[in-house]
Amino acid sequence: MLNIQLTPFPELQTARFVLRQLRESDGPAMLAQRSDERIIRYLDREPDTSLTQTVALIEKIKQSAADNLGITWGIVRPTDDLLLGTIGLWRIMADHHRAEIGYGLDPAYWQQGIMSEAMVAVLAYGFQQLKLHSIEATINPNNMASKRLLEKHGFVQEAYFRENYFFRGNFLDSAVYSLLTPNATEASQNHE
């Protein structure tokens, strides 16, 4: 079993961004993102409706890191510290050396390579620092941008569940992608 330690909170740097712990002051930007139909369209959940609700989520996310259960970073530019989006490893399963990745980005910043850059840093952290063996992502199969992002970073679709998720009176499909630690991927290819 892995010994997951997420405190003190690990701040990550990329060429253009800082991935830092979410703050209560991120609430308005996060509320705008979590209530934007373009973002939540494929998340299959109701939008946030109040700043109180979003700030409570930020506190829950911070507690999850304190409890070593999951970690979510705010993606910001070092010049203005404005929250552009979030990315995190959640549902950490230490017994199985596995976690799930999730992410969201303000539509004003789509198609700029931001999430791809953040994902490189988070995958490196997950595999190198946390010593995860695999990272998975569950997406709505109609979310082509998410599918392209995952495939760009080496994720492979491992499952397709038909009508396994019920939302707003409809049964929806889910696609599960996963990525093995680079060493495991090389070992399995050499074994074949």
From TrEMBL:
Entry-linked SUPFAM superfamilies: Acyl-CoA N-acyltransferases (Nat) (SSF55729)
Domain N-acetyltransferase, first and last residues per copy: 17-183
Pfam families in the record: Acetyltransf_3 (PF13302)
Protein name: GNAT family N-acetyltransferase
Coiled-coil segments: none
InterPro entries per record: Acyl_CoA_acyltransferase, GNAT_dom, N-acetyltransferase
